[in-house]
Write a structure and sequence with these properties.
By secondary structure, the protein is mainly α. The protein has a domain at about 5-65 and about 110-160. Helix content is about 75%, strand content about 0%. The protein is built from 7 helices and no strands.
């Protein structure tokens, strides 16, 4: 089995897929959770919009992304055409197919991971934020000293939990 070049190609593709989806989904989910955790008008609608891809069946998600990726009539190729660029066969060209699948997977998974981070952020005592505001702490400093330690354990949970 280890002498088979197909095995190594599949192993390489799996590694690229994992490295492309897990950290990207986690980073995007954290940004989404930070965004919807703040004071935001229509926060419930935004949360629902972020989480909806997670509850879609994979076949529905695939059909949505086929609308974007279709070689002749896909939205991405139409946008490229408007810019004067030639279209791409997003799922048929081996040089971009894996990246295209990674983008779809990140879109589908990020809302799932957002729930974990949002739960962690909402469990943080509000006094912590009030104290940092009184001290004049910057948002970045508060993220590093307040949010990050609170959500630290959730990184491992998100890395091991996969919705599909």
């Amino acid at each position: 089995m280890f002498d088979d070049p197909t095995f190594w190609k599949v192993a390489r593709n799996n590694l690229i897929y994992a490295v492309g989806t897990i950290p990207t989904s986690i980073a995007l989910a954290l940004c989404m959770a930070l965004f919807v955790n703040g004071k935001l008008r229509g926060r419930g609608v935004v949360r629902m919009a972020y989480f909806t891809p997670t509850i879609l069946p994979m076949i529905a998600a695939a059909n949505i992304w086929m609308f974007f990726y279709a070689p002749q009539i896909g939205l991405f190729n139409k946008l490229l055409g408007m810019l004067g660029l030639s279209g791409v066969n997003w799922l048929g060209d081996p040089s971009v197919a894996l990246s295209s699948v990674i983008v779809m997977s990140v879109w589908k998974e990020a809302g799932f991971f957002m729930i974990f981070y949002l739960a962690a952020l909402q469990s943080m005592p509000p006094e912590l934020k009030e104290a940092s505001d009184l001290e004049g702490t910057s948002r970045w400093s508060f993220f590093l000293a307040g949010h990050l330690p609170t959500i630290d354990a959730h990184h491992a949970v998100c890395a091991h939990q996969r919705p599909n």
